[in-house]
Amino acid sequence: xxxxxxxxxxxxxxxxxxxxxxxxxxxxxxxxxxxxxxxxxxxxxxxxxxxxxxxxxxxxxxxxxxxxxxxxxxxxxxxxxxxxxxxxxxxxxxxxxxxxxxxxxxxxxxxxxxxxxxxxxxxxxxxxxxxxxxxxxxxxxxxxxxxxxxxxxxxxxxxxxxxxxxxxxxxxxxxxxxxxxxxxxxxxxxxxxxxxxxxxxxxxxxxxxxxxxxxxxxxxxxxxxxxxxxxxxxxxxxxxxxxxxxxxxxxxxxxxxxxxxxxxxxxxxxxxxxxxxxxxxxxxxxxxxxxxxxxxxxxxxxxxxxxxxxxxxxxxxxxxxxxxxxxxxxxxx
Length: 333
What we know:
Blueprint (H helix, E strand, L loop, with lengths): L9 E5 L2 E7 L6 E7 L7 E3 L6 H13 L9 E3 L5 H4 L2 H8 L2 E5 H12 L1 H14 L7 H13 L8 E3 L4 E4 L2 E7 L8 E5 L4 E5 L20 H15 L3 E4 L5 E2 L2 H25 L4 H8 L6 H20 L4 E5 L4 E5 L1
Helix pairs in contact: 5-6, 7-8, 8-10, 9-10
């Protein structure tokens, strides 16, 4: 068995696979970056953290603890396009010539978002405004989006992985899974022999992964996520390597059931609130997330509320009507 490297932020997972906790300026505090260093095989990094000086230093230190440098990385696999997972992919690509891989579903929308960000931002903000975001909040929301964009260095070339393919890590074969909901093309890697899942943010031990409806996402992210939870429950991995609050968790099946119950409770709550009074998704988000939130937090709250409302609408349990005087969609029974 591989000896544990002398780094408090580096955790041995199995074989030659290690999980590095990389600091990020978000409430979760750390994101998991996996490094696979097989003898005689390609060095693989799974996720790359946010592009900040602190993250760059942490990754450099983690690679160093394994006797590696940036230039030694041969392959990068990205679980999903969110900035705290994809931010440094282009830097690794530039420094090492590594190939960068992502699920094919994610390349067409999520990854493309970073290349077309300036073109897509007006539509993104209009989407929020149409669902009730106050006009005076649009500038703050746009500035917050811009700060996030500045921390993403997208890869110049991304190669597709497809559901059902297999990749080799630590001498083992891992099946590529499609786990949508938190992101349209969220990728997971499953090794049945060891009963280990590389889960990214598809499931987390202490918080519920944000499931939000944005201008560029699939129409029913919550429906997608409920199916993903069913898939995770059926897999029932002994361990999962997770993106935050890990790096390793057990009890995935029980946690998947818990998260399904959590979302069903929110669906019932939203249905009752919209039946009581027709309101915009933003107004309903103030009820579902009834606490002080910063600009990013309020954006996530609106997107998650909207995902629940649209799931109910697509099921025929709620309706929406365009309110011309206010210029917003109102949800009602």
